[in-house]
Write a structure and sequence with these properties.
This protein is an all-beta fold and 120 residues long. Helix content is 0%, strand content 62%.
Length: 120
């Protein structure tokens, strides 16, 4: 059993910062990638950022230069540092990961989501 647990959401004023974290736990052999999506009320879930096992990162254009994704591989944890937050960043943020379990099964996982609210 492998799961993702997120933390770090909250309420912040525009221009402020938050850091989200997501930890993978369970019977993990290796992690291929970890990343973040978000879903605002009434909108579809959208890609935010991803980091591959080799360290390559990708960002949505809307967050480039403001958000940074990085991992602590020893802790199987991915972080999303969000700076210069805008009201339009308000959403539920979901962690996702591609994990190879100890059974060698490849799993595509989602976290439970954490709310980020940016007030104007």
């Amino acid at each position: 059993q492998v799961q993702l647990v997120e933390s770090g959401g909250g309420l912040v004023q525009a221009g402020g910062a938050l850091r989200l974290s997501c930890t993978a736990s369970g019977s993990i052999h290796s992690i291929n990638f970890m990343g973040w999506y978000r879903q605002a009320p009434g909108k579809e879930r959208e890609f935010v950022a991803r980091i591959l096992s080799g360290g390559t990162t990708n960002y949505a254009d809307s967050v480039k230069g403001r958000f940074t994704i990085h991992t602590d591989n020893a802790k199987n944890t991915v972080y999303l540092q969000m700076n210069s937050l805008k009201p339009e960043d308000t959403a539920v943020y979901y962690c996702d990961a591609g994990v190879v379990a100890t059974t060698r099964a490849t799993l595509s996982l989602w976290g439970q989501g954490t709310q980020v609210t940016v007030s104007s």
